Every structure is written in C-alpha cells, then in structure tokens.
C-alpha cells in the first residue's frame, strides 16, 4: 500500500443479488400468477446456483422446452444438456415436478373420483401431458368409485404404447376393483384419439364387463388439452 492511501473500498455486491431480493418480495406480495415463466424458474434456480445470475439460464430453458411445465417435466438428461444447468439444479426441477404431481393426486386420492372430475383431469394433465413418451396408466376404483390404485401399465415411444387388455383386467381382479379409468398421453400435443386408442378401449371394456368391472372413461391428454372417449361415445 502506498504512503497515505486508505484501505480499499469493499467491492459492491453482484447486481443479481438485488434482483433476487426484489423478485422474492414480488412473489410474496403478488403470488406466482403475477410472474412470467422465466421468473418462476429463476426462483427455483436461485437455491441451486446461489452465485450466478440465473435469468439467462431460465430463458435458455424456456427456449429449449417451451414453457415452465414442459421444462420441469423434461427428462433429467435433456435438462443437463442446457449449458450451465448441472445435476443439482436438474434435481431441484425434478423435485418440483414430483411435488406438483403429488399435489395434483391429492385432489383425488381421498375422495370419490367421479365426484371430483376436474381434479382428475388436472391430475392426468399434470402427471402426463408433458411427457416425451406415451404412457398408459389405469386408475383402479372400488364400488364407491374411491381410488384403490393408480398405476402406469406401459411406457412406449413418442407415438405408441403397447397395451394388453387382458393384463389390465387381470390387475383389476387382483385389486378387487369394480371400475377403471384409463388415461394416456399424446406427446405430439394433440389429444385426438387414434384408431388404436379406440380399439383398445373397446376391447378392455368388452373383457371387463362380464366380470363386473366397468370402464368409466378413457382420457387422452396432450399439451393442447384433453379428450374423453366416453364423451365422444367411442365405446
């Protein structure tokens, strides 16, 4: 230090720290609905990446995947392909996804499923709409239409899932289920049923009916909405 000079001035805090404080305060005051997708992603990334400006990363994730929902639903290996997103931050995003699914399932787990149809649709959308492969799940119900089990029966490719109707009905008998709700996703985003979707629904209903098992519906979800094969009178 040269003669007569004073101590060095402390470095100012990084600019993004003030931004983080303001964003957290806005979240607490106005709620998540007031925040665009990239700011909600920032709030999650803050904890995993405390010494970085994460706004560019949040925007890069949205450019890659399209929306907040599609980002947290993306496979871990695809998330970590985005420059700057490591395993820790990817894990945080998958925890958020798991929490969202658990929360949505809570809307149907302890009640009569047919009496909470909107909650059922929201659960199916949360659990399946943004997956990158087709997944076929079955909700097994008791005689009061309460949920016995919710099981993914098969996972396939981007446009096909093998479904074995006799295996679905066999599982229903094992669980003493008296009704079923079928659900699967279309990764293309368009929930319009295919000929194969219609045929497998009809076959499951045909096998299950004589055994006292009713198929209430087959719901197909996609990013663009959902369809009900029952409402379409397709089985």
Task: Provide the descriptors you would attach to this structure in a database record.
Cytidine Deaminase, domain 2, alpha+beta, 235 residues, 9 helices, 15% strand, DNA polymerase, domain 1, elongated, 5 strands
Summed up, the helix count is: 9
H/E element order:
HHHHHHHEEHEHEE
So what's the CATH class of the largest domain? Alpha Beta
The shape, in one word, is elongated
Radius of gyration: 23 Å
* Spans where pLDDT lies below 50 across 5 or more residues: none
CATH superfamily of the largest domain: Cytidine Deaminase, domain 2
Which strand order do you get reading across the main beta sheet? 2-1-3-4-5
Amino-to-carboxy terminus distance:
86 Å
- Domains (count): 2
Secondary-structure map:
Layout: H1 15-30, H2 37-48, H3 55-65, H4 68-73, H5 76-79, H6 87-109, H7 117-128, E1 135-141, E2 147-155, H8 165-174, E3 179-185, H9 195-208, E4 214-222, E5 225-228
Parallel strand pairs: 3-4
Antiparallel strand pairs: 1-2, 1-3, 4-5
